Amino acid sequence: MTALADHTPLEQFRQYPRHPHQSARLPLAESIASAGLRAAARSLYIHIPFCAHKCHYCDFYSFVDSRDRQPIFAKRLAHELRAIAPAAAGFPLSTIFIGGGTPSLLSLAAWKTILDALELAFDLSAIRNGQGEFTVECNPESVSPELMDLLRSAGVDRVSMGAQSFKPAHLQTLERLHTPDRVAEALDIAADAGIQRRSIDLIYAIPGQTLTDLERDLDAALALPVEHLSCYNLTYEPNTAMTHRLNLGQFSPCPEDLEIDMFNLIADRLTRAGFGRYEISNYALPGAECRHNMVYWRQGSWLAAGPSASAHVGGHRYKNIPRLETYLETSDTGFASIIDHEPPDPRRLIREKIMTGLRLSEGIDAGDLLAQLATLDPEAADSLESEAITVENSGLLSRSGGRWRLTDAGIIFADGIAADLMAAVG
Ligand code: SF4
């Protein structure tokens, strides 16, 4: 714990932009709102950066805060929420997702500050009348009845629980703090509070994990009162402690062929249990798909608040600077300083639609995409269509009902196929 906590400032430094032109304070959301793009965003992501412990595989912007900055963070976040709210133009929000970090680590007082600000700044009527979706990410060890009651009373109807594995040895490998039993307890607490929609995250391809281990994890997950499962393979991101240990040869990663077998096992086991795969790594009972994540994957628009949170509004992409100290600096307007601003670019949007759309079981509206590209560059549209036909002929892509979808054989090659199609867009 201490060693990883020591690692955190270095990680923060690495994530902080070192070139002044990257960190200009741009009240972008303000200018977007005044440019008449207001009604574009009906979704909101909020990032809570605090964690009780830095898991050594994690490259999210999150850290152990030894300085008890939750109260000032919550006040600052409330200020930002008030600032960005006009970009929803008074329309009801349809989805909110509060992630992190570990949102369930926040104190009740900090939560009250944030939830009150949300209620005052935005129209939450669609969420409150059951037509929207309000998700909070939780870690099992920090779920309490008081917190779940508070969240439910504020309109939260969905929790996403970080289970990751049900085998103690693998939880230890991942440096997770909870016990397997605690996942069921936390889900019961959420259910008792009236939070009807519950999801869990699993990680596979953990070093030392066998197919039998994974099968047991899936069985344990399916025995829980959940409607949704996200199953991600363990990835070794640059600058994480786990990747450093891997590079030092301290352990062996999961062999690639075993990882593919695990990927197939997950699909087989979960679909047999009635969970449909609607995105490569996400499974849901009918109608229980995560609506907020679908906004991302369909390249919709969403607002964002909190350090490191990324937004997509009116074709603009940008990200709040991932550094709490910068975020907490007084801002008269309430807007956060941003980095990685990309102005609207129709060709980029087409590439992004290919990248995320191919991961969805609903696929991509091929006619619509080709028509959009043809208005920009007819040659590129021809080139994209012929590239898609090549992939179709190899049996990895199908075109039916006017949509491109990866076939079962193609799913495992999703990234490569998307790269080829995106290259054709130019
Ligand atoms: S709890 Fe989640 S966000 Fe926090 S360090 Fe672990 S994986 Fe990262």
Structure overview:
The termini are far apart. Helix 14 (346-357) packs antiparallel against helix 15, helix 14 (346-357) packs antiparallel against helix 18 and helix 16 packs antiparallel against helix 18 (414-425). The protein is α/β, with parallel strands linked by helices. The protein has 2 domains: 2-16 and 25-297, Alpha-Beta Horseshoe (pyruvate-formate lyase- activating enzyme); 345-426, Arc Repressor Mutant, subunit A (Orthogonal Bundle), CATH 1.10.10. The chain has helices spanning 2-15, 28-34, 70-84, 108-121, 125-128, 145-153, 168-174, 180-192, 211-222, 241-247, 256-272, 291-297, 324-328, 346-357, 366-376, 378-393, 408-411, 414-425, and strands at residues 43-48, 95-100, 133-138, 158-164, 197-204, 228-233, 276-279, 282-284, 303-305, 310-313, 316-320, 338-342, 364-365, 397-400, 403-406. It binds iron/sulfur cluster (SF4).
Topology:
Layout: H1 2-15, H2 28-34, E1 43-48, H3 70-84, E2 95-100, H4 108-121, H5 125-128, E3 133-138, H6 145-153, E4 158-164, H7 168-174, H8 180-192, E5 197-204, H9 211-222, E6 228-233, H10 241-247, H11 256-272, E7 276-279, E8 282-284, H12 291-297, E9 303-305, E10 310-313, E11 316-320, H13 324-328, E12 338-342, H14 346-357, E13 364-365, H15 366-376, H16 378-393, E14 397-400, E15 403-406, H17 408-411, H18 414-425
Helix pairs in contact: 3-4, 4-6, 9-11, 14-15, 14-18, 15-16, 16-18
Iron/sulfur cluster (SF4) is lined by residues 51, 54-55, 58, 60, 62, 100-102, 139, 162.
